[in-house]
Amino acid sequence: MRIGLAGVGRIGAFHASTLAGLDAVDEVVVADLVPGLAEKVAADQGLSAAPDIEALLRSGIDGLVIATATPGHAPLLRQALAAGIPAFCEKPVAATLDETIALAELAEGSGTPVHIGFQRRFDAGYRRARGAVEAGELGTVHAIRALTHDQEPPHAAYVPTSGGIFRDCSVHDFDIVRFVTGREVETVYATGENKGADFFAAAGDVDTAAALLTLDDGTLVTATSTRYSGGGHDVRMEVMGSAASLAVGLDDSLALRSAEDGVTFPAGPPHASFMQRFLAAYRAELTAFCDVAAGRTPSPCTVHDALQAFRVAEACELSRAQRRLVSMFEIPDAPALTKALR
Ligand SMILES: NC(=O)c1ccc[n+]([C@@H]2O[C@H](COP(=O)([O-])OP(=O)(O)OC[C@H]3O[C@@H](n4cnc5c(N)ncnc54)[C@H](O)[C@@H]3O)[C@@H](O)[C@H]2O)c1
Predict the structure, then answer these.
(1) Mean pLDDT of 40-63
(2) Is the pLDDT assigned to residue 304 strictly greater than 60?
(3) Is there a domain that residue 322 lies in?
(4) pLDDT of residue 116
(5) Omega of the bond prior to 266 within 30 degrees of 0, cis?
(6) Tens digits of per-residue pLDDT, 93-118?
(7) Ligand 1 pocket test, candidate residues 5, 10, 162, most atoms within 8 A of CB
């Protein structure tokens, strides 16, 4: 198959090389807004380049991967849907809740599949946790601890358009909590602080945040995110049940050192980036997208799923701003769609 890819920045160039290595992909065609960038990445990786997005969409591609900066996602998704081209779109689907709701409804009614890039759904550990919860191996789940701790902050220019730490970073935890538990969030209390670079506060953002989520079955979830985890890229989940507890990401690459005498675990170096931590998951999600684009499987992560995670992030921003508990009923949804999917 021929896969088009829009946006060859940090994650886009990485996705391009992953796609080029997949058995199902015969050709990857890339495009970017910055003149010459797509040509350079194409030359470096042995891919094809299109002069612009319009040419890319007209070039007979079987699927489009959208990996541009966030403001490009919604317009490109609309173009792909209008052309009937199956799309893989990086999170977030759009910069605002209203646009995300509009796109969820548009995608649902279009008949063209859209797969949103929450790669943790393809990570072996998170999948194992979901299976264990589903099979009742942990008994009744009472508490979950989820965390996304980046080793170092993104570049300063990324922050003002990122949507803030909850929509950019914790949103992965919000999605994977839904995936692992099969439950929805009912209420949220969230807060955040800045002790790092000034550009976070200048953008109205925080460099470290914590959210307490109550799920609709009474499970309590704490989700923390920070841009300053100097000990290594640290993404984990602990699921605590009445019969057993399970940890995702508890291996020799754990970015923690024990304070206890004589403990040598973890033995290996920690992950240095999200690309390293989720290498296999990124490959698995793009393999899955090829199946979606070929019509073999339905989307494993729909715009509706992304909307629900985004709504939780929206509730967290509201909670942080107003320093109060926020009910998910306060956050607009796509009512017709939600009803239809349940
Ligand atoms: N799933 C994940 O783990 C993950 C990780 C990192 C980033 N992301 C998401 O991926 C997106 C890109 O992040 P990044 O870190 O690669 O950003 P980046 O700034 O490094 O790269 C963005 C690229 O998109 C290009 N671009 C912008 N608008 C465009 C348009 N309309 N058409 C074509 N090209 C366009 C820019 O020129 C740039 O090359 C963000 O939305 C981010 O949230 C997801």
Answers:
(1) 96
(2) yes
(3) yes
(4) 98
(5) yes
(6) 998 999 999 999 999 989 999 999 99
(7) 10
Q: For residue range 194-243, list pLDDT tens digits in order.
A: 999 999 999 999 999 999 999 999 999 999 999 999 999 999 999 999 99
CA-nearest residue, atom 18 of ligand 1 = 9
Ligand 1: atom nearest CA of 168 is 43
CA of 131 to the centre of ligand 1 (A): 32
Q: From residue 127, give the alpha-carbon distance in Å to each of 94, 119, 138, 139.
A: 26, 11, 14, 17
Tell me which residue of 207, 225, 148, 214 sits closest to 181, measured CA to CA. Answer: 214
User: Measured in angstroms, how far is the CA atom of residue 91 from the centroid of ligand 1?
Assistant: 10
Query: CB under 6 Å to ligand 1: residues?
Result: 6-12, 31-34, 37, 53, 67-70, 72, 90-91, 117, 119, 168, 274
Question: Is 199 a domain residue?
Answer: yes
**261 CA to centre of ligand 1 in angstroms:** 44
pLDDT greater than 60 at residue 284:
yes
Here the CATH number for the domain that contains residue 252 is 3.30.360.10
Q: What is the per-residue pLDDT for 342? A: 42
The residue segments making up the domain with residue 224 are 121-285+304-335
- 6 with 32: CB under 8 angstroms? yes
The ligand 1 atom at the shortest distance from the C-alpha of residue 117 is 1
For 149-168, the pLDDT digits (tens) are 999 999 999 999 889 999 99
Is residue 60 situated within a structural domain? no
- pTM of the full predicted structure? 0.95
In a domain, 290, yes or no: no
Domains identified in the chain, total number: 1
Identity of residue 204: G
